[in-house]
Amino acid sequence: MFDIVTAPTRAKLADGRELLFFALPGHQPAPVPDRRPLPQFDPHQSELRFDRTTGQWVIVAARRQDRTYKPPPDQCPLCPGPTGLTSEIPARDYDVVVFENRFPSLSGTSAVGEVPDGFVPVPAAGRCEVICFSSNHDSSFADLDPAQARLVIEAWRHRTSFLMAAPGVEQVFCFENRGEEIGVTLTHPHGQIYGYPFLTPRTAVMLGQAREHRNRCGSNLFEDLLAREVADGSRIVARSELFTAFVPFAARWPVEVHIYPNRFVHNLLELDEAELDDFGRMYRDVLGRFDRMYDAPLPYMSALHQYADTDTQREGYFHVELMSIRRSAVALKYLAASESAMDAFISDVMPESVAARLRELA
């Protein structure tokens, strides 16, 4: 069990955005003044538009066109910036850092409210944060030592608690995109944390299925799926006393692994200390297997599905979904017309064969 300091050291960036340093025991963050000539941060940079054909919100964030795009390593804005002139993180070094995104999709505190009548945009309230897993530019989450990984999890928990209590936030989503094939423009090991002002479409569908299952079977959908995957066994990748990693029966992506705690919880905040330690171990284990599949590191997306203990989200079971578009050593799976236009996924590989391959890579 790790001795983790959870209270962050707070600082401000030159444009007024918040910056939080999370430190390992014995490490004292030492931010320096951010001396970049940045314009004052505008929290009203984007808007929501309601698509009546699908009943879904679309985020329009045109200012994101100006965000940093594939800078050379010596100009990475996520590396430490000891001069206060070069980086989003003005400090000589750091362990884990969270800061408000300079080019957010969501910002501000107003609630969505009623769906507007006609072609009327509403402010895209919410919050978008960046989380840097390490100051080492050439590292990855799989490379983190156990204590560093646990510190990232504590930062996720801290921000989850804060955002779940924030006005107008309906869903908290921690995620990582890794690899240029996924669309990553900054290679420094980092993820993002979104506080959405609405339930995302996939979450709404999953919760709807869970409610139907509860009404029909009297039990939790996710608990039953996990039990059936364990009983079947053919798609299990790794299993401990506290967590299970498996390729789902109806996997949509060429490489897809879900990580579930073995007991029902809604979110990271409900895991106990032993579960948090084991979660970090299992998460790094699966990512390490990903990187051993081929000669080059696997591009992936990581999605932490978290839920609030409310009437509308009570059936939600915390889990992580890891996905990659790489379908072989030389080929990628592109989301073409069937997937992108119709949301009808076509899988090119058998889930059982992917699970068997990942089991071999222990």
From TrEMBL:
Its cofactor is Zn(2+). Binds 1 zinc ion per subunit. Residues 213-361 form the Galactose-1-phosphate uridyl transferase C-terminal domain. Zn(2+) binds at C76, C79, H137, H188. Pfam families: GalP_UDP_tr_C, GalP_UDP_transf. It catalyses: alpha-D-galactose 1-phosphate + UDP-alpha-D-glucose = alpha-D-glucose 1-phosphate + UDP-alpha-D-galactose. Pathway: Carbohydrate metabolism; galactose metabolism. Keywords: Carbohydrate metabolism, Galactose metabolism, Metal-binding, Nucleotidyltransferase, Transferase, Zinc. Signal peptide: none annotated. GO terms for cellular component: cytoplasm. The active site is at H190 (tele-ump-histidine intermediate). Its EC number is 2.7.7.12. GO terms for molecular function: UDP-glucose:hexose-1-phosphate uridylyltransferase activity; zinc ion binding. It is an enzyme of class 2 (transferase). Residues 45-199 form the Galactose-1-phosphate uridyl transferase N-terminal domain. GO terms for biological process: galactose catabolic process via UDP-galactose, Leloir pathway. PANTHER family: GALACTOSE-1-PHOSPHATE URIDYLYLTRANSFERASE. Belongs to the galactose-1-phosphate uridylyltransferase type 1 family. This is Galactose-1-phosphate uridylyltransferase. It comes from Mycobacterium shimoidei.
